[in-house]
Structure formats: structure tokens, C-alpha cells
Amino acid sequence: MRKLLLTLTAMLFFSGMLLAQKVITGKVVDDKGSPVPNASVTVKGAASTGTVTGIDGGYSLTVPATAKELEISAVGFAPLTVTLDDKSFYSTTLSSRAQDIDEVVVTGYTSTKRSKYAGASTVVNKDKINFIPNASFDQILQGRAPGLLVTAGSGQPGAAARVQLRGQASISGGSGPLYILDGMPIEPAVFQSLNPNDFEDVQVLRDAVATAQYGNRGGNGVIIITSKKGKAGKPQLTYTGQVGITEPGKQQFSMMNTAQLLQFQEVLGRMGVANLPGWQYSRNNPAYATSTPAQQAATDRFRDSLLAINTDWRDVFLRNGKFTSHDVNLTGGSATSNYFLGLGYYDEDGIGLRSDLKRYTLRANMNIKTDKLTAQFNNSVGYTRRNFIESEASVTLANPFAAAYLGLPYQKLFNDNGSVSVGSGRVGPNAYDRIYTTTSFNDQIKANTAYSLEYALTKNVYVGGFGGIDYRVTIAERSIFPNTWAANSSRFPVGPDVGQTTGRGSYNNGLTNFFQLVTRAYAGYRNRFNKHDLDVKVLAEYTREKQKAFSYTGYGINPKLLETPAGMTAGSVDNKLIPALGGSKTGRTLSGILGTINYTYDEKYTLNASIRRDASSQLSEDQRWVNFYGAGVAWNILKEDFTTNWNKVSDLRLRFSYGSNANADGFYFGNFGYLPLFGAGSYAGSNPTLAPSNAGNLNVTWEKLITANLGLDYGFFRNRVYGTLDVYHRKTVDNIIPQTISATGGFGDGASIPVNAGVVVNKGVELAINADIIKTNDLLFTVGGNIAYNKNEVTDLGQVAQFEQGTELVKVGLPLGSHYMVRWGGVDAATGRPLYYTKDGVLTNVYSASNSVSDFGTYNAPWIGGFNAGVQYKGISLNAFFTFQKGFSRFNNQDYFQLNHAFALQGYNLRTEMENMWKNPGDVTDIQSPLYAREFVSKDIQDASYLRFRNLSLAYQLPSSIIGKLKYFAGIRIYAQAQNLYTWTKWTGFDPEDSNNIAQYEYPLPRTYTLGLQVNFK
Amino acid sequence: MIIKQAKYILGVAAVCGFLSCTKDLDLKPTDSIDASKAFTSVKDLTDGLYGVYSSVSNANRIRIGSILADETKLSDENRGQDQTTFRWQYTSNNAPAGLGQYYQTIDRIHRIIAAAPGIPAANATEEADKTRISAELLGLRGIAYYELLILFSPQGYAPDALAVPLVLSSDLLQKPARAKVSEIVAQIETDLAAARSSASIPDAPTDPLRLSKSAIAAYQARVALYKRAWPAAITFASDAISLSGKTLNKATLAGFFSDANESETIFKYRNNAGPSLIWRDTNGDVFFEPADKLKQQFDRVNDVRFAIFFGAGGNDTSIVIKYPGSSRGPQVNDLKLVRLAEMYLLRAEAYAENNQLTQAAADVNALLAQRVNGHVDVAYATQPIAIAAVVNERYKELCFEGFRFFDLKRKGLAITRNLSDSRNANWQTMPANDTRFALPIPQTEIFANPNMVQNTGY
Predict the structure, then answer these.
(1) Domain assignment of residue B420, yes or no
(2) Cβ-Cβ contacts under 8 Å, A424 against chain B
(3) Is the domain of B371 the same as that of B442?
(4) CB B107 to CB A523 under 8 A?
(5) Which of A 896-935 lie inside 8 A of B, CB atoms?
(6) What does the pLDDT look like over B16-75, one tens digit per residue?
(7) What mean pLDDT, rounded, does chain B reach?
(8) Do B51 and A689 touch (CB under 8 A)?
(9) What pLDDT, on a 0 to 100 scale, did the predictor assign at position A249?
């Protein structure tokens, strides 16, 4: 009663002071009627007047009497506008999922409502990004945005993926997108130290109007990450934790066991190809019959002892790992400022022995918004330690994923005395021993800051600035312990000490340093008058990037001082343990000026346009400046009068855009490759040398991309069904390619200079669709997905019609990444001889690389996408997510090695299919006689299409009826998820997914199961 | 009014932003040197000269000279290494030799020659340095063209046969046609003569990493041999021998190959990059053994060379150990570009060809006296016997030094291997005048240079 009186008094007092005020109360609930705490409630047009809902979803707000509308928003819900009338209590139901119809599109330089945006972009919300057990956020994006190809080259925790938007646009240059975190460009492909749990959303900008603003860096699309912000209200503390396991996925190949391999070796012996143990100790060997009984007994004993051993090396090198993550977030704020603090810990064991990742991250974000001032301060720092397997993704015996294939089943891992049975020809044990007698890891510290400030000089004129730093230091350490198998079989390829430190061990330390500074200054004018909505802006941008590297390797390691520089022996002429040193420095400067205009008439017609003049220090003074432009128009059809009766249509917008840009981050020749350069060296020890090191080309200029995009945003049945459809044509002109020059030019045989030649066209269609199939108070069943088709084609190569690039053929009329190989013609049943096709399609038994043809497709998948289905019933939600890539093929080097008798001769294991090898005239088989050399041919190109059950998650949110009774908790959510649950593919090997065109014993992706808990504290 | 204000602000922002940035766009590399600023002092010219010397390794000639010829035997441990070369199955796509190495040498020379006149000498010492550098560069250009000459022309080196393009200045984008053998030979002779006439080049190889008059005379002698100009070859070889100030010595022979002494060195290349991978891998695998045919030429008991050239454990002689390693590492040795014994054999061959059989025998005897214990002097009854004997002595003395294939090519002889060495009759014999004696021009060059003509048969 007293309280009421006080309130009444206060109200009277205030209303006396400021006559036009009233108090509004209300409650915010979700679709299921559960209260929505922490929802922001503000008066439209006066963001400083606002509050947040309490634990019961209730709020009370004093508003000016003139207030017409309230804006209510909450994390994970679509914002809603409530029209105020005479009522004092408002019950509001927020839709439980953000509809992407009217979200804000942040483009780095500008942000605008989607309804006033003509660009093609996709938002991936935090519920799809946060708390996925994957340490590199780019991998999390796989299948989430139409047209975005994400393929991981490694299951090593923290490994970055190959990311490509709308096809490979450059013949020889980079094809990766630009990444922006809170307005700050960040180093691509180095994400291990960023915590994706701190990300609010990720936007994928695909077309020219969206990316033209990024000028010389936006050519391959832009991925914009926005980190989390605080909510007005009292501090909210949230803890999220996960534990789980990682395990190897399905393996689509079977290796021979001891009995099979010995049997196979006997066949080779009988055919006179090799005298391996399976033949040496065979009773069928003619030598056996002529042996003495004692010798025969010894032979039998030996054979039996081999048969008693059956080691599956995959079991040795693969393991189940542990997974743990903890995140603590603290958020809060007032009407004019808010903060977000995040602490993260992430610990994932790889499925390969020794490999893991540990990450510690901190983030502190602060936002200030007053009538005049808008400021954002985003800071994050992360530290990671990654332990690596040996020789990852290389065709070497030290690579455990190679040894898993190659190791002989009749070799034991351990000797009887417990030591590892290393030795010459013992692939499995040697690789295993290396894991424990060498180290390879990196420590990385990455810091990001992005500060921005905008000030409204008048109602319409504003000025602003931005400054950001992206800094990363990685220290890679590698040790080979002395007096081990690894040390004994290592020779040191550098320095005056070549080949002489066998057995003495080494310690290597390599430091790389990346620094990028970006500053921007801008001024603009915005106004809404009558039916016009106008925003014009001019911006200048400056980017400075510096990279440094330094490394040393010391030899002669003290066995008592492992893994430290202190263990190195000081080098001298006598001991020959002279350390090797190396290092480098490079950098670049980018500069640009940008003008943009965003104009909307009557909410119907929108024009977004930009023009940008750009330069980079990576080209010569005469060539470095370039102009880019982009323009887009959008038509909001539902605002037209003739659509008033289209009751079933809830959203319909037509967009068209056209523009140009480039990719300064993708020059194949780096920062100074355009310059003719000399290098300094030395000859015969003490004589400095000076000699040309780079031919360069001062005339090389920008490779430009020109994109046209036609898009449609649609929604039906009150947006129960909604999505986007885009069609694009993307042309890369003046491709920078290496043109071979004559050896008489002085740079060696096959030397090249960068020149502008060639055109590549990517065209395609992208569809995204989402549907709420069932939507009742208690039950929500949704499905959604995206699919993209891209056709890639080289349409012009300047003076040549084709050229080879590794095992690819770049040819007019073919897509990039086309395989180039001799066509396999099967096996001659009479002789077992392998057959091939000539270029003209004639069968021959002569292998000649000059018969290579390019009829085997490309490794760039034309069809990509992802789809999901989800059920929510009361507090329970179940979601499944699938990704796929279709229509592409890759070389399977593992097939070449494991379906190749020559590898048996060299002492390696083979796949069980080799039992079908041609043995006698008349055998019909695809595996040739061991009397003939096995060549790398078209049958080693395999369809790598796959469909992957990427994620399955089950979550339960404790109902408010229980939570309300708890003393400390405002919300509890428990969940379980499985990652990479199953893969459907015809590919043989560990994993069809890879970042390049050839399988070479890559580290496969793990399957991960985790159990999670999220707690909101009161 | 607002519009006016906005304009002003936009203008200021743009100008400020712009001015602060544009000057930084002229970024220069820190780890390399801008080509236009490479040569600014006489010291730079000296460094450039060493850049030229660092490019004249004869490692590839050593590989071709032995593997294409009858010096090696295919080893059990060979898993394909250089087998197409050994089997004479090379094509333009896997050419045994490129044009790149020596045109790089030539280009480096031309860049220094072009820069030198603009660089003033600070004092008399620098003036002398400049003079010597200029002379050495001409000599080195002659040597580079000599190395190119012997690779790509057909057997016999007829004056009108195609050789390699004659390039006399640095030009990145040039697409020159092939010159005739006679034109290349003339250029080599001019360059070597010019270098040798310079007073600033020392007579004797006091620093065998750089050219001496003795070394230049040696190359003059080689070119004369290719021209079949026997008296000139005799004169030049005699000059090389006498200017070198060195004598043949059996006692120092083993140490000479392990770089312990330079008793026979006239000109050498410092091979510092790593173990010689020509016959052996770093892990000890032997890809090519010394040919049985070669070993059969030696008197295993009395010829001290046998144990110096061939070895392994015990009585096994299946490894080439002519490059045994040095203080700089196992199998790491200086590559001898010119050494004394070759000059004796070169002069002996010229004498024999000139029908001066006594003098030919005298040179061979002078060599063998320092190679074979209890050597008994030989004498030649006829000219063919003498020529054959000298060629065979070259086979023995100079094995694995990059001569054998080129000797057979120069003399119009067939390559004949023992079947035990080739292991297959298909690659046992390459008849005289086979087109494969002229090595293929690499396909990359054919693509890049429309004026380049491929050799017959590729």
C-alpha cells in the first residue's frame, strides 16, 4: 500500500513536471506462451526510453504521451512493433524464430533494413553458429548459406576450410572471400583463436551491390561476422558447457589382414614378381620341397608366427578423443550503453593420436548510443595451442594416416620388452614411435579490436570514424628427440651441416607475425522527407598490413633438455651443429575512397549504389588505381495497390544488381611479385652474391569481377513459407595468370611472368526455402534448406587455348579444376596387361602422358547445399541438419597406392580388392597383372559426391513453472548433439570432403558427440 | 544550408583520408632489392659476378654425361629415378637438360655488363676490380655458351647444324631463333680470347673459384677439340697446363677428390647445396651403380684410381665414391669444372688426331705414371689405335665428371653398354648418329618461344 502510494505520488509528481507521460505495462511471451525475459522494450523513435522484461516477461515503462509505438525485441526472436492505444497493459507474443524478412543488414560500411536493400545476402543466426563442436568457424558455415562452398581439408582440430562463394572465379589467384569481424577485415583462414560462441550472426554477401563497397577486396564475396552485444537491463550471467567425445567416422575401404596379405604375396611369388615373406615361407614354394625336414619345420614355424600377428594399424593410429567447452557470458546495460563480456575455453582431442586444440578466449564489447553519439568498442583476444600429427596430408611414411594404410598386418607394434618395434621397413611401428619422440605444435595469440564512432552533427548530417587492428602471432615448435628412430632417420636439409646430425635430434622454432591496421573516416547525410528516404555517404579507408617471420633450428639436443632452446648444442666448425636461421618481412598498403547512396521511395522502390576508387601497393604506380561501382534496385511489390488482395502473399521483393570489384587478397604473386627484383645470397661461404630473383611485370593490372544478380525475396501464408531465389552471372576479366617466357629471358626453363589474360564465367542459381509445416501453440515443425547450382567455365585464355596447371587442364570451354589424365582402358584378359585410350579413343597398351584428356569433370562441386528439419514441442526441440556436394570428382591417390602391386613389393599393405588381381590368362578383372607397371590413370578419379548428416541436436528448456521456483536460475537448457553423424558417398577412403583435388592421406573429419548445459543465473 | 555543410564535411573527410594514404602506396620490399637499384657500386658488381659464378654448376652435365652413356648400371634400388633418361626415352616433356641454367648465367652477365659503365670507380683498386670483372664476365659468357653448345646439336657438331639462340643482351621477353653451331663457336672464341687477353686476370688458378688464364685456355682447348682444330687444341691445352703451375701427382689423388687438396684444380664450382643426388639418395639408396663395363677397363690391382672411384663395404664396388664427401658433409664436394688430367688427355687426343702418335703416348704415359703402380709406358702403332686408346683413357680417368656422353657424341661413336649394365637389350645400344644424341628442347620453351625449332625426333 505504501509502495502504491509512493508510486502514485511519483507519478503525479512526474506528470506534473512533464505533463505528457504515461506508464505502460505488459508481458512478452513466446509462441508457446512462455515468458520471454530480457526482451528489450523501447519507444519507437526514442531508443533512449526503454527497459527490459523481467524473468516473468513483464515490464513497466514510462513513456511520453506522444509515443505511438513500442518496439519489442529479444535474442532469437523476430522484433515486433506494438501500436499504442488507450490500453495500459499489452500482451505481446514474439515469434520464436527470427524471420529474415526485416532484419538489419550490416554491410560493414552501412547497415540498412533488408526491405531497403537490393543486395543478395544471407544471415546465419547464432543458433546455427554457437556451441557447435568445431574450432574453426568457417567449417560451421558449411551448408548454411546458398552458394557458399565450405570444404574442410583436415579433421585436425582448428583447421581452416576452403571457402568459396559462387564458384572459383580466378584461374591462378585466390578464390577465398573477405572476412570482416565487427567492421574489421581479419586474416583469412586463421580462425582457430576466434570463439564462434561470441558471434551474434554471420552474414554472407554475395552480389555486386553488397560487395562493391569492398572494392579491391570484395571480389570473392564478403563474410561479415558480428559479435554479441549486451542488452539493456540488469547484468545477466550465463554459463554454457559441453562435454563429449570425438571418434573416427565410417571408413569405406578394407585393408588386407595377415592371412590375406601372405596369400597375396604368395601369388606374387608364384608369378615371379617378388620374394616376399608370403612366398618365402610358403609350402607351395618349390624351395620348400627340396628343403630338409628341419628347414621345413623352421619355415612352418615362421609362417605360423606371422599368422599369429594381425595388427590393424587403423586401430593403432585412430582414437576416440575427449571434448570439453565452457563459456561464461556477462551482459547488461542501460538505455544508452550496454556491454557483453565473454570468457571461453575449448578443448578438443583429434581422432589422430597427439592432435588436439586448446583455446582460451576473452571478449569485451561495449556499445554506446545517445541521440548524437553511436560508439562501439569490440575487443577480443584468444590463445590456442594446437598439437599436430606428423607430416599431415603428405605422402610420407611418417604421416599416421598413411601408415594406417601402409603398415603391414604381420608386424607387431611392440617388442616383447615393451619397446616400440622400430626398424627399417617397419612402417607402422616407426610412425607410431614418431608420435612420442617428436613434437609439433603451435601457440597462437590473436587479438582483434574494432572501434567505431559516429556523431550526428545535425539531425541529418553525421560524421564517423573507424579504427581496428587484427594481430596474430603464431609460434610453431618442432622437436625431434635425440637417439630415437625419428632422429636416426632424419637428416637436416639446410645449413652446412647437411646429413651429419643423424641421431642428435633437433629443435625448431618458427615465429610468424601478422598485423593489419584499418582506419576509416566518413561523413554522410541522411533524411526522410515526404516519401523519400535518403542516405548519402563518403568514406576514405586506409589499410596497412605487415607480416614477419623468423625461424631457427638447433641441433645436438641434450636428452635431458627436450623441447626447449636450452637443449640445443652451440654450433661450431668442429661439431658441425650450426643452427639454421631464416626469416622474412613483407607488407602492403591499400587505400580507397568510397561513395554510397541508399535511397528508398515510398517504401516501394530502393536504389543502393556505390562508387569506389582503390589502390594497392601490390601493383606498379601506373596500374594500381582502379575504379569500381555497384548499383542495385529493389521493388517491394506488396506495397503496390494492385496487390492489396494478395492475401496469401506476405512478402515479395524483386531485386537486381550489377557492379564490379576485385580481389587484392588473391594475387598469386603476393605483395611484390609485380616488381623486377634482385636477391642477395652468398657463394662458396664468404662471397655475397647479387642476382635477379623475380622477373615481375610492371604492366600487370587488376583482375576484375563483374557480377549481375537478379533476386526475389518471397513469403507466403504470413511467412509460414519464405525464402529467396537468386540468379547470377559473374564474370572475371583480365585474369592474372602466369605466362611462360623463353628461357633466354634469364629466369630458367618454364619461368613465367604475371600477365592479364583470360575470362572466367560463373553463373548459377540459388534457392533458399523455409517452411513452418505445423505451427500450433505447443508444436512447431519446420523444414528448410538451400541449394545452389554453379556453372563454371573458362571462356577465354588470351593467346593460348589451354595450359596445364598440375594435374588440371585450364582450357577454354571447360570449368576450372578439370582433371587431366590418361583414360583407363581396362585389363587385357589374355595377358593381364593394362590398357589405355589414346587421345583419339583407340585402345593401346602403351602408357603415354601425352594421351591425357580432360573428360573427367572438375573437383569444384557444381551442386552444393544444406537442409534441416526441426521439431519443437513445448520445451523440447529436435533439429537435424544435412549438407551435400554433388557432381564433382577427385583424384584418389590412396587408390593408386593401395591398389598397386608395386607397393606390396616395397613392403606395404594393400586393399583387399587386390585379391582380384589378374593372375591367369582369361581372368576378367580391372586390376592388372603385376608384371606391368601401374600408372596413375583415370580410374583413380572418383566421384566424391556426398551427403552428410552434419548435425543432430536435441534440447530441453526447463519450463518456467519449474524455473520460477528455483532460487538462482533464470533458465536452464540441456542439450545433446552429434556432429558428422553419417556420410553417404561412393568415395573409397576415409573422407570424401577435402580442400583440394587429390586425396593424399588427409586427416579425416571426426564424428563428435556432446552433451551440453546452459544456465542463466538470476 | 544542411547540404552545404555536408559538402564541406565530406570534402574534408575525403581529402584527409586520401592524403594520409597515398604516399604509403609506394611500398618497397625489404627482403629483395628493386632491380633498378641493384648495382650502385663496384662492390655490387663483384657481388653480381659471384652471382654469375654461383650459377655455373656442372652437376647436370655430370648426370647426363654418365647416365646417358655407358658409365652406369641400373641398380636394384632404383624405383624409377632417372630411368627414362637411362633408357634414352626422354621427350620434350621430360628433357634431360634445359636451356634455363646457362641462359640465366648469360642474363646475369648481361645485366652487369649493362650496369658497369654507369658505376664510377672510387680509386685505382676499384678500377682494377672493374676491369677484371668485365674480363671475367666475357670469359664466363663463353663458358656458358660452350655448355649450351654441347647439349642440343646433333652428333658431330657440323658447323651448319642448329645450336642454341645467340643472345647478347638482357631482354625478358625476347623470342630468339636458334643460331648455327659455327656462330655459337665464333662467339665463344671471341669471348674467351677477349677474357684471356685482359692483363687483370691472373695466369694461375690461385683462387680456383674464379677464372684464371689457365682455365680460360682450357675452355679454348675444349672448343678447339669440338671444332676439330687439332693444332689449336694442342696449343691451348699446353697453355692451360703450363699456366696452371700444377703437376700430376699420384700421392695427392685421393685427397684431391675429397677436397683435401687442390693439386689438379684449375677451375671449380663450390657445390654447397647438399649431397650429390645423382647416383645416390640421401637415405643411402643407390640408384645407379658404376657400370661393369667401366670397371672392367681398370687394372684393379695396380691402378690406384679403382679404389678411389668405386667402393662400398668390403670387396663390393657397386657405389660411385668419386664424390666421397668433404669437411662440408658426406657426398658434398666441389665440382671440378677444369682439372689438370683432362688437359693432358685433351692434348693427347689432339696429338693422336693430328697423327703425332709419340706425343700422344707421352701425354698418356705422363698421366698413367701418376695413376698406375709400376706403369710401363705405352706406344701406339697406328692412329686409330692411338685415338681409341686416348678416348678409353678419358672414359677411365674422367668417369662421372660429365664427359663420356659428350665424348661419344663429339667423336660420332655409338653408345654400347654391357647387357649386365643395361639389364635389357632395348636400352643397350644407341647407334651412332641417332637423333637422340641431340637432346630435346624443353616443351615449355617451344610453347613460350614460337621461333624455337625442336630437334628432329621429338
Answers:
(1) no
(2) none
(3) no
(4) no
(5) 906
(6) 555 555 678 889 999 999 998 999 999 999 999 999 999 999 999 999 999 999 999 988
(7) 91
(8) yes
(9) 87
For A740, the closest chain B residue by CA position comes to B448
Q: What is the pLDDT of residue A88?
A: 77
Supply the DSSP symbol for A803: E
**Pick from A525, A677, A744: which is nearest to B29 by CB?**
A677
- pLDDT at residue A17, rounded to an integer: 41
Query: Is A677:A670 a contact under the CB 8 Å cutoff?
Result: no
Residues B189, B238 within the same domain: no
Residues B186 and B46 in one domain: yes
What CATH number is given to the structural domain containing B360?
1.25.40.390
Which parts of chain A sit beneath pLDDT 50?
1-19, 97-101, 493-499
Per-residue pLDDT, averaged over B375-386, amounts to 96
Nearest chain B Cα distance for residue A257, angstroms: 26
pLDDT given for residue A761 in this prediction: 97
One-letter amino acid at A226 equals T
Q: Which residues of A touch B444 (CB under 8 A)?
A: 740, 743, 749-750
pTM of the predicted model as reported, rounded to 2 decimal places:
0.87
**Shared-domain flag, residues B340 and B253:** yes
Closest chain B CA to residue A690: B48
- What confidence tens digit (pLDDT) does each residue in B121-138 have? 999 999 999 999 999 999
Q: How confident is the model at residue B327 (pLDDT cuts 50, 70, 90)?
A: confident
Name beta bridge partners: A538: A523, A595
Report the residue from B10, B167, B283 with minimal CB separation from A744: B167
pLDDT tens, residue by residue, B214-236: 999 999 999 999 999 999 999 99
- Specify the pLDDT at position A2: 47
Are A577 and A569 contacting, i.e. CB atoms less than 8 angstroms apart?
yes
- B83, B127: one domain: yes
Do residues B395 and B271 make contact, with C-beta atoms less than 8 angstroms apart? no
B405 plus B454 within the same structural domain: no
Q: How far is A903 from chain B (nearest CA, A)?
A: 11
Nearest residue of B to residue A588 by CA position? B27
Of B24, B39, B275, the CB nearest to A544: B24
Same domain, B112 and B25: yes
Q: What is the pLDDT of residue A35?
A: 75
pLDDT of amino acid A108: 54
A934: part of which helix (H) or strand (E)? none
Same domain, B452 and B349: no
Q: Which residue of A has its CA nearest to B47?
A: A689
Across the strands, what pairs with A935?
Answer: none
Q: Domain for residue B285, yes or no? A: no
Q: Is A913 helix (H, G, I), strand (E, B) or coil?
A: helix
pLDDT for res B8: 58
Q: Which of A903, A920, A944, A946 is nearest to A255 (CA)?
A: A903
**A743–B27 CB contact, under 8 Å:** no
**pLDDT computed for residue A54 by the predictor:** 75
Interface test with A, best of B33, B81, B174, B451 (most A CBs within 10 A): B33
Rg (CA), chain A: 32
Q: How far apart are CA A6 and CA A14, in angstroms?
A: 12
- Residue B82 resides in a domain: yes
Q: Number of folded domains in chain B? A: 2
Residue span of the structural domain in which B194 resides: 1-201+432-458
CA A631 – CA B196 distance, rounded (Å) = 71
What's the count of helices (H) and strands (E) in chain B, helices before strands?
18, 11
> Do residue A461 and residue B107 have CB atoms under 8 angstroms apart?
no
User: B35, A525: Cβ pair inside 8 Å?
Assistant: no
| pLDDT value, residue B281 | 65
Interval B187-208: pLDDT, tens: 999 999 999 999 999 999 999 9
Question: What pLDDT does A850 receive?
Answer: 80
Q: Are A413 and A471 in contact (CB under 8 A)?
A: no
Across the interface, whether the CB atoms of B22 and A591 are under 8 A apart is answered yes
Q: Is residue B233 part of a domain?
A: yes
Dihedral angle of Cα A414, A420, A424, A427, to the nearest 10 degrees: 80
Query: Which residues in chain B are closer than 8 Å to A694, comparing Cβ atoms?
Result: 32
**The C-alpha cell that represents A206 in the structure block:** 554475395
